[in-house]
Amino acid sequence: CETKTKDNVFVNVVASIQYRALADKANDAFYKLSNTKGQIQAYVFDVIRASVPKLNLDDVFEQKNEIAKAVEDELEKAMSAYGYEIVQTLIVDIEPDEHVKRAMNEINAAARMRVAANEKAEAEKILQIKRAEGEAESKYLSGLGIARQRQAIVDGLRDSVLGFSVNVPGTSAKDVMDMVLLTQ
């Protein structure tokens, strides 16, 4: 049955009806109704065409059991007078128009691409942060190394000045420093 939803989307709704003639009303089933299948189909189409236009496309998918129940209730009322029992009613397929399906798939694909782009950007951000942290740690350690190197140079100069001052009497620390700087 083709019908239009509240949001103007054409859908084809396929229903499956399981029914049987009641044993105690076999005469009614045989003589009162000549085209059982056609009559049931007419009732099904009528209920679907009355129910689906009240719903948006997404709601049609979500409420297919309610639509099936409405079809079953209407059929039960109508067909019991003719000696038939409605055993089960199922909405087995809801097919939107091909253009609508394609558009829905494109929307879903775009949403997934957007999520993937966000995840990729977040991963790149984390990578850059880790790279910057590593670079900062490297510079910090390099600075510590340079500071220790300079401290060792200062300690060496001090030891040299003290040693020279002790071994050569009459020289001041300034004289020794001037001489060391001259030789460098």
UniProtKB/TrEMBL annotation:
Keywords annotated in UniProt: Coiled coil, Lipoprotein, Myristate
Pfam families: Band_7 (PF01145)
Domain Band: 1-108
Coiled coil among keywords: yes
Ranges in coiled-coil conformation: 61-133
Native source organism of the sequence: Solanum nigrum
SUPFAM superfamilies: Band 7/SPFH domain
Listed name of the protein: PPLZ
SMART domains assigned: PHB
